[in-house]
Amino acid sequence: MLEELRTKIIRLFGEEAAVKVREACDFAVRAHNGQKRSSGEPYSIHPLAVANILTDLGMDVDTIISGLLHDTIEDTGITKQKLEDRFGAEVAMLVDGVTKLSRLSYKSKEEEQVENLRKMFLAMARDIRVIIIKLADRLHNLRTLEYVDEERQRAKAYETLEIYAPLAHRLGIFKIKWELEDISLRYIDSKGYYDLVEKVALKRKERENFIQIVISMLKEKLNDISIDYEIEGRPKNFYSIYKKMYMQHKDFEQIYDLLAIRVLVNTVKDCYGVLGVAHTLWKPIPGRFKDYIAVPKPNMYQSLHTTVIGPEGEPFEIQIRTWEMHRTAEYGIAAHWKYKEGGKTSYDMDKKLSWLRQLLEWQNESRDARDFMETLKIDLFTDEVFVFTPKGDVINLPKGAIPLDFAYNIHSAVGNRCIGAKVNGKIVPLDYQLQTGDIVEILTTQSTSHGPSRDWLKTVKTNQARNKIKQWFKKERREENIDKGREMLEREAKRQGYSLSQLIRNEWVEGIFKKYGFTSMDDLYSALGYGGISTGPIMTRLLEEYRKANAHGIPESLIKETKADKDKEPSSSHGIQVKGVDNIMVRFAKCCNPVPGDPIIGYITKGRGVSVHRGDCINLADEFVEAKRLVEVSWIGEHKAAYNAEIQIVAQDRQALLADLTNAIADIKINVTAINARTAKNKMVVVNMNMEIHDTKQLEKVMKYVNRLPDVVDVYRVNA
Predict the structure, then answer these.
(1) Relative to the CA of 131, which of 54, 100, 206, 237 has its CA 20 to 30 Å away?
(2) pTM for this prediction
(3) Residue 173: inside a domain, yes or no?
């Protein structure tokens, strides 16, 4: 294996480079001396194999040396500084980027995995070669997975399919991606894998004969038009067949691209020339043609794909690309990375890796392990749609993306002021799922007070959109976020059988503040309110501290609410109870119109009793509001009275729109007390309706009913 590596290095880089690589190899052997792999072989076999994989990918000498040394910091006593002194700062940085955080302790395996991935992605941002080394490392580990126990085999295989294979796809390194997928499948579903291998083998001779026939037919025609070409049969990796069979419920015989050929030519013009010849020979299947040359994939992949009906009615796929495109298809970013040719490249790497920057932006915001893992999986999985701006610019989005994802991809201001969308010239709901080829136009308002809805967080597909929505709420609605976050934590504490006052102690929250970078409880509540963190890990930590405190004999009287508080049953008025206060006048604030089901808070006024507001009322965030006047209130009893509520409807302007709206609400027996309608830009109309309802459930029913009407774009409750 060492001699094989030396031969490759001399061929690619010369004798001097081979000497440097040999020095690194000897260093790795000494560092790992005495260590064994699960197979019983010396550990140094592994870094040597990784270096060979990196060499096959065409990586530079420093990357290959880093592959040889990638486990030295993690598994030996070698320090980063020692590597830097011996092999240079670049090699030391690459090795450190690959190194796991195994020496640190974590609350869970999931948290450990997330922190390892965070570090790896940060290192990727500095130098993309980190992940290429990691992929080579993972590939060799999978090749030797037979030597570990079954549980570990499955765990590694699942992790590979969830993280590393999609990463290889996003970087366009298909040569590695396909092998990672096939090996992982073998350990996850051994029976399914070997059944598939058998089916493919049974048809091999028949398939090879068919491919030779169509190649001969195509060659004959291409020779007539004098195009330099090379044609080969294209093998299909087992995992891609498996996915189509088991996830799309297709039979083996229904997989069209089992039979495939690839044509390699010199120029883009020749690509389209070959396509024309192919379509004159065989009839193309509608909907099965894809032009990735005109619209490349984000991972730099370019090719023409078409599926045609061949001899005897057998469908098969043809891929057509230039030699340069083919190299990129095999090796992705490794074929065009920025360190070659003195740092110059024909590709804009910053643009190609924009998804990585977005991911890093999000990981800085999301400190919750589960949130980050879900986000990572969404960003890495491969199904995508390509849509167009009205000016013809191509925007790629994940499958299932909606106009809001498109809006935030354009600019955060476009997303924040979005009130509707047109797709192919027609008004569509904001939760419409975009399709490849759609032309999307976003309708916006000029109102500076308009902002995103919290409901958007549940409907957007892209992490970029979700992050920008959260950022808006974080910046523009801090007081609202604080109230919402406090309420969320209180609710979770109550669900666990505690009050929040039992669980909040300065010494208990210090660890939380340190982990998330907070300086106060308001910071914590705000992060919960805008969705930066979830209540789960916070509550887990607080409960741990509470139980530890009780275990050490802290008097229960210091933990629980006082008996006086428990015994004091507040009086009520208008279905409202005010904590700790008897016989006090209660009124509902007209600025926010709270209704049963809303989180509420009371404000003690001068001479007018307690004013009850919605928990998200912005008037309570006013700098002149005195915090000491705020009082805890709650809904009690059955709510048969009518409460005032206001909704705003955004719709496409048309005749009889107002009549349809009022009739619809009358149909569900809701009393409308006031209507105000005004026209907006882009032929839109905004309608405000005041009505009498019993609770939030009834209000939600009204909004859903109205939202189904033709030409209605959006319906939302008016905030204070």
Answers:
(1) 237
(2) 0.52
(3) no
Q: Which two tokens stand for residue 608?
A: 């007018």
The Cβ of residue 452 has, within 10 Å, a number of other Cβ atoms equal to 24
pLDDT tens figures, 446-460: 876 678 887 898 899
**Domain residue limits at 504:** 477-565
Buried b (16+ CB within 10 A) or exposed e, 393-418: eebbbbeebbbbbbbbbeebeebbbb
Query: Concatenated DSSP letters for 520-545?
Result: SHHHHHHHHHHTSS-HHHHHHHHHHH
- Which of 230-234, 581-585, 632-636 has the least mean pLDDT? 581-585
- Domain assignment present for 44: yes
SS3 100: coil
The CB density around residue 190, as the number of other CB atoms within 10 Å, is 11
* Residues annotated catalytic, as ranges: 74-75
Q: How far apart are CA 351 and CA 338, in angstroms?
A: 12
Q: Are residues 386 and 439 in the same domain?
A: yes
Total domains in the chain come to 6
Q: Which residues of 636-654 are buried (b: 16+ CB within 10 A; e: fewer)?
A: eeebeeebebbbebbbbee
Q: Compute and round to an integer the Cα radius of gyration of the chain.
A: 31
Per residue in 394-427, pLDDT tens? Answer: 787 888 899 999 999 888 889 988 999 999 889 9
For residue 469, pLDDT over 70 is answered with: yes
For 601, how many CA atoms within 13 A lie in the half-sphere containing its CB? Answer: 20
The alpha carbon torsion through 114, 118, 123, 129 (nearest 10 deg) reads: 50
Q: What is each CA distance from 367 to 115, 158, 353, 537, 587, in whole angstroms?
A: 10, 23, 23, 10, 41
Q: Which residue do the tokens 């996850």 mark?
A: 188
Three-class secondary structure of residue 99 per DSSP: coil
Check: CB of residue 420 under 8 Å from CB of residue 430: yes
Q: What single-letter DSSP state applies at residue 580?
A: T
d(CA 331, CA 335): 5
Q: Is residue 348 part of a domain?
A: no
Helix (H) or strand (E) holding 444: strand 440-444
